[in-house]
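Data follows
____________
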Amino acid sequence: MTVNALGIYEKALPPTLNWEQKFELVHELGFNFLEFSIDESDERLQRLNWSRKERSEFRAAMWKTHSRINTLMLSGHRRFPLGSADPQVREQALVMMQEAIDLAVDLGIRNIQLAGYDVYYEPKTVQSHELFLENLQKCVEMAAKKLVMLSIETMDDPFLNSLTKIAQVKKQIASPWLQAYPDLGNISAWPENDVINDLENNFAQIVAVHLKDTKKVTPTFKGQFKEVPFGKGDVDFLGCLKALKRLGYNGSYTVEMWTESAADPIAEVKKAKAFFTELFNQAGIQQEKINE
């Protein structure tokens, strides 16, 4: 039987808890690790500038609770994209990347997930594509110097919405420190994608997997990529999990949820955990033992 770790996204948990309480709750809810978020909000971007004392306190909370962070999810590049037409924004994007790498090193995080957008709030152009690749190369060089993995997420955006497209980026930037972080929901939502073929043909570049439900894009519907209750969307989780087990996937899975502002976040996470525990059992996947 295949053994995989199962984590929970930070934005699923009550935001009022301190780090020690969050780490303890992660284990109580039956997860192996927490996925750390640095999004485009001022509050979470400020983490990039944590003092030595703040970093030390965070590490102490992890160690005390026998916890770990597998991935730093860096979605702040939506606000400061690598492919921006504004050179000052591009410079800020590179500064953000270096700060994220340094933070990951200090916190013992080995993988940074990059949002695969050339730009998000700006018009997409040939130049935005080229600027993204030019600056991604710089990011990979920064990460390689510190032995930190960068993994591009398959997105809710046509620019990089499949592992096949990420593989094309890797042909331009050939580095072992640039890999892929597929989101099964995002891949499944795009009608041009054959999910199983995409996983099979690009399996060697997968370092982690997001579990999220979505509703498919159609000619008359732009799709739904967030906050679709598990089991109510179009993702064939069991089929995907069986395929990944057959391929020999030993990396981690993260349940991606945004329930931190729900009336009862813990109840929502418990439902999701039960949903995936059943699917793991059906697929013949054993969850890694939880540290105590």
About this structure: The mean pLDDT is 97. The beta strands are 2-4, 6-9, 33-38, 69-74, 111-115, 149-153, 178-181, 208-211, 252-255, 285-287. The chain has ten helices and ten strands. The CA atoms of residues 191 and 220 lie 13 Å apart.
